[in-house]
Sequence to fold (64 residues):
Amino acid sequence: DGTEVTLKARGRAISTAVDAAEVTKNRFMKNLTVENIEIGTEELESPEGRMRNVSTITIVLKKQ
Fold:
């Protein structure tokens, strides 16, 4: 219904997603709230073929 946006990021991009959520909430759309934050770990295969764990974050912003 257009009142919710979800930001997802992995690894080093997590800080960029958090910054984007904060700038959007504080500067552009002051009527947004953080509805939910989920953190987790995904197991990915590196180019060398080894498995490694990568942190993930999902931020849900909702219009009040």
About this structure: The first strand starts at residue 4 and ends at 10. The chain is about 25% helix and 55% strand. The longest helix spans residues 14-28.
